[in-house]
Amino acid sequence: SPILLWYRRDLRLSDHPALQAALATGRPIIPIFVRDALVDALGAAPKWRLGLGLGHLSQSLGSKGSALVLRSGDALEAIKTLISQTGAGAVYWMRAYDPPSVERDKAVKAALKSAGVEAQSFAGHLMFEPWDVQTKTGGYYKVYTPFWKMVRSNPVRDPLPTPGQVPGPADWPSSEQLDDWKLGQAMQRGAQVVRPYVQLGEQAAQARLAEFIENKVARYNDGRDQPWTDGTSNLSENLALGEITPAQCWHAGRRAMEEGKAGAETFLKELVWREFAYHLMWHTPRILTGNWREDWDAFPWNADETNAEVQAWKQGRTGIRFVDAGMREMYVTGRMHNRSRMIVASYLTKHLLSHWKIGLKWFEDCLIDWDPAANAMGWQWSAGSGPDATPYFRVFNPVTQLDKFDKDRAYVSRWIAEGRAKPSAEALSYFSAIPKSWGLAPDAAYPDPIVAADVGRKRALAAYENRGF
Ligand code: FAD
């Protein structure tokens, strides 16, 4: 009987343990994707990007003599229907680690097993299962550096090959049409503005990795902190949807390290930051929803999203160039340089005293590399409420950070049009991307700071002094 291969955030054919296990049985394979409530709940940009990824995966499977069967509704119900329509005797999938997916998958597994259907989940979205990495006393890690030291010499499995053919059933079950799902509906700027920045699918991801190792990793130690240059791998977009695996990236990084390329170890460390984020999410799922350090619940955050300062932050018109450049970069490209992510997050949570959850949600709506674990860790790190976080009293100065990381102002002039005789195409594209209701124009004067760097710093430190915990 056939095997249902349930795709989720693992949109690839290479290095796919569940697919390889299914192939090894010699049975027909029916790849499926279910648009359930968790898909419907995605933010605008990640949902749109998922739609692109699914279209691409469907083509890749087509080129292997297979197809992707699309169904919507409750995952278990959809799978049960498919089982009765195809006579499938097994369901295989790649494990997910965010709490709502874990809950869903547990229920699906239990129900299938009690119905006598084989149900198997496989590891691969991470290099190290979160429960396998333990402190000496058997606990989980709350601090990155010991986590890194613990895992850095652990073996990472060798990536698996891309299959030649994926054998299907004699009769295919019906499929819904991807276009009918309108996954890009809430992302009006998607096709026109963001699409040129997308690198879609596993071949593109592999090319990105190869290019990074070939041309960028040697300069990565500096390049990763220079938002004006393309000095990083940009692989977060592909890792988020499983178009490439961390194991594939790890082995490429290891080889580069053995070849003596400076920056290669730093790249491995960044991949382990991603693992650490999943480790934290697994062991303390509250990192997604509330202050990881619970005493921070008493901090007088502004939690009002309609607040005028928050609106200015979202719309990239705070009058602080580094912040506005980052926010505009994200709106146009669906991604933002890591240095800018730290600066905009610090400005929101410290200078504007606004709750990190507001920022987390806006990122979730705008990022094509949105990742639940990395986003939550990044926000709580920036706000000071997370484990191993930057302390609240360490307030980034968004003006002097420019002198350090954008000395020639190449980054801010790429993204800010106002006040320039000849604005860059990127800076102008922001104005065609934003809703008219934001009322912004490239030929207007650049705004004065809504909260100046020194004023905001004093305000943040005063709030911290008086926090009462
Ligand atoms: P590279 O520098 O090439 O690094 C390689 C890979 O390592 C990345 O693709 C990523 O998977 C991982 N990595 C690097 N830095 C981090 C980090 N700090 N935390 C976790 N993993 C890391 N990353 C996301 O993938 N999705 C998010 O939604 C996200 N939200 C963030 C929010 C905030 C407030 C902050 C401060 C950081 C966030 N990050 C997020 C982490 C980081 O900014 C991005 O992973 C990085 O900018 C991606 O670019 P790159 O692929 O070129 O990274």
Automatic annotation (TrEMBL):
Claim: Flavoprotein is one of the keywords in the record: yes
Known cofactor(s): FAD; (6R)-5,10-methylene-5,6,7,8-tetrahydrofolate
SUPFAM superfamilies noted in UniProt: Cryptochrome/photolyase FAD-binding domain, Cryptochrome/photolyase, N-terminal domain
InterPro entries: Crypto/Photolyase_FAD-like_sf (IPR036134), Crypto/Photolyase_N_sf (IPR036155), Cryptochr/Photolyase_FAD-bd (IPR005101), Cryptochrome/DNA_photolyase_1 (IPR002081), DNA_photolyase_N (IPR006050), Rossmann-like_a/b/a_fold (IPR014729)
Protein origin, superkingdom: Bacteria
Name of a matching Pfam family: DNA_photolyase
Ranges for domain Photolyase/cryptochrome alpha/beta: 1-127
PROSITE patterns recorded: PHR_CRY_ALPHA_BETA
Keyword entries, A-Z: Chromophore, FAD, Flavoprotein
Keyword Cell inner membrane: no
Family label: Belongs to the DNA photolyase family.
PANTHER family for the chain: CRYPTOCHROME, CRYPTOCHROME CIRCADIAN CLOCK 5 ISOFORM X1
UniProt protein name: Deoxyribodipyrimidine photo-lyase
